[in-house]
Amino acid sequence: MKVGVPRETKNHEYRVGLTPASVRELVAHGHEVFVESGAGHGIGASDNDYERAGAKVTLSADEVFGEATLIIKVKEPLAEERARLKPHHVLFTYLHLAPDPGQAEELLASGATAIAYETVTAPGGGLPLLAPMSEVAGRMSIQAGAAALEKSHGGRGVLLGGVPGVEPGRVIILGGGTVGNNAAHTAVGIGADVTILDKSLPVLRHLDEVYGGRVKTLYATRDAIERQVLQADLVIGAVLIPGATAPKLVTRTMLAAMKPGAVIVDVAIDQGGCFETSRPTTHADPTYLVDGIVHYCVSNMPGAVARTATYALNAATLPFVLAIADKGWKEALKDDAGLRAGLNICAGNVTHPQVAEALGKKYLPAITQLA
Asked: Within 10 Å of residue 255's Cβ, how many Cβ atoms?
């Protein structure tokens, strides 16, 4: 199969769909790989590195899309990329379609097959291709929040770890999944006062065992969320419903009653965000104020640590990329129900139930597209 890796064009996105090592694996399996010139510069991989791995380096994205059938990216395709998609293309990347009807409409119109990393499932449950970036974003959320708390950035002027004689900052984490757990890991490490809220008692029990009392756990009722948010210096939004729009857990009314200069970091912003006042921001302009509360809502947080993030992502995605390239996308999806769950759009149809519900579209089961 011919595999294409275009350069990412989202604001301050430095990750790349395939590393040179991943390219080498594909080439060893007998596939051709076309990489846009400069695609790997953000992770320290030169065009020569890709050529040594067996890739053909092209001068433009037009050439990549023109030559390849399977397109491997990191972030959702922007408008100019969506215009290049044709019915024969298979796009494998993060899509996050639920809060983005414009992207969905153009993907539907293209006739292409779009498989989303974030809805691929594992045999025992979980989201194996979302997990690595959730780990990165969770850990980054604390360092981003800590910087935003500095007075020069509009924050309260609080040091999360405190110092002898001064209490540490209060970190409230909404959601105890992969993002929340990794946020807690970093927050505990710097000495913050950490509370995690979640609706799953097994998750809360697990976190209590892992952190041995260094983290407080609470069942996430509306009352508990409001009480904790109003006392917080930093709130991390870490709630995910696969394929669906994130629930709005913190309202504008709650926000107005928070401590002036408190910070919220909405890691769920790719799925619409879990704060009522959230809107996507970029690494170039990451924060804004509403009612005196600093909002950090960068939709591609891991792009700032591109090397770590790309290698973590490739470790998870490469087996699926190889399966699609080796077998063809239809056979690969027939053989793997978890990969089949990643099919969001195919031949002008929405093939994921939560995505269809969020977009108000008719749902066509993925299996019907594999004949």
From this structure: 21
The yes or no reply on domain 2-119+305-369 and CATH 1.10.3720.10 is no
Write down the domain spans for the chain: 2-119+305-369, 133-299
First to last CA, the chain: 20
49, 233, 266, 270: which one is catalytic?
270
Question: pTM of the predicted model, to two decimals?
Answer: 0.90
| 285 is an active site residue | no
Q: Which pLDDT score is estimated for 371?
A: 83
Whether domain 133-299 has CATH 3.20.170.30: the reply is no
* 357 pLDDT higher than 90: yes
What pLDDT band is residue 108 in, cutting at 50, 70 and 90?
A: very high
Which residue out of 31, 89, 96, 352 is catalytically annotated? 96
Domains 2-119+305-369 and 133-299 share a fold: yes
- Residue 198 catalytic? no
Share of the chain above pLDDT 90, in %: 96
Residues 371, 360: Cα–Cα separation, whole Å: 26
